[in-house]
Amino acid sequence: EQLSSTEIQSIISNFDLHGRPGRIYPTGSGLINDTYRIENLSSGYPDYLLQRINHRIFKNVQALMENIAEVTFHLRKKLKDRQVEGVENKVLTLVPSKNGLYYCKDEFGNYWRMYLFIPDTRSYDLVETEQQAFEGGRAFGSFQSMLSDLDVSRISDSIPDFHNIEKRLKDLDLALLSDPAGRKKEVEEEIRFIDLRREIMCSILELGRKGRLPLRIIHSDTKFNNVLLDKNDHVQCVIDLDTVMPGFVAYDFGDAIRTIINTAAEDEKDAAKIQLNIPLFSAYASGYFLETKDFLTAEEVHSLMKGVILMPYMQAVRFLTDYVQGDIYYKTSFTGHNLQRTRAQITLVKRLEENRADLEKIITGEALKQNPSLLVNAQ
Ligand code: ATP
Ligand code: MG
Ligand code: MG
Prior knowledge:
Elements: H1 5-12, E1 21-26, E2 34-40, E3 48-53, H2 61-81, E4 104-105, E5 111-116, H3 130-146, H4 165-178, H5 188-196, H6 198-201, H7 203-209, E6 216-218, E7 227-229, E8 235-238, E9 245-247, H8 249-260, H9 278-292, H10 298-325, H11 337-354, H12 356-370
Helix pairs in contact: 3-8, 3-9, 4-10, 8-10, 9-12, 10-11, 10-12
The site of one magnesium ion has 5 residues, from loops.
């Protein structure tokens, strides 16, 4: 539901704004939060960006906002230390609320936060060129890199078990056990596909438990439209920090690749259309290693391909769970939409498996191009 201008005015009055607020209008194509741009009528002062935080998905708003504060402060310090120009437009800047926090709660129980609006940028929903893929790799690579020396214990899980494939599989098992929508019999083939790969898909978690993969601070929503580009289509700023949390670098890499490498939509019906776009994959990897070469371990480089296969598999498990549960989590446009999504992600996993050796060669090649000693620096 849209809020009236008076309602928004009263929310704005909780924040420490400079200048005189003018027009307020919805902006962006985000699916999770409600986002408004607030014009500033005083010249020399920035516009603002107001967001209502999706409290249904993010249960612990305080922890989430503490994460964002930690991360943006660290990024800002890094950029300043490097004497980068225009820092205020290269990292999100939270506007303090008058209650001493970085968010406020309205009379309806909604949570709100405010950022400085970053002007003269654009973002794209889909990666279409190698140049864009390269910039995407650079964006999320440098994000991980700059956060690699921030203490992971300062960051909490904004969504518990978000990347935990063991938990996701357990949820699927529970759904199948109760079979509330009577759909189990329709999905036997999909279950077989998933079951055959259970153990191998848990290998990143396993390597983490053995201490062979370090827990890092990752973005966890590495879609291309979460990167703001400048007028030359170069990375300017990584946005949408709600899901920043501890995790393994392969999760961010794999989730970015999941959409970039797929020639079709996430829910494509025609399996034949689901093919791999290898040039975009290479370009993303190239940009990624340019920025991460100094901190990634050899084991992490080797884990990236595992992440590339895991992320569409995990998405298939989540879509299938929702289908079996009767479509209660994801918005669907028709009956069977979640099953179609499941099948599309399964097809993508198959293609990735078929091309695994070639993709691995590209990863290794791009990694070595950026740092010839990268693959021997294991801890
Ligand atoms: P998603 O569906 O990706 O989770 P979301 O609902 O969490 O999105 P954001 O990605 O944070 O929302 O923001 C929505 C849109 O608003 C962005 O795609 C971008 O176009 C714009 N935007 C967000 N923050 C800023 C900013 N500080 N300056 C300028 N534009 C911004
Ligand atoms: Mg977003
Ligand atoms: Mg978001």
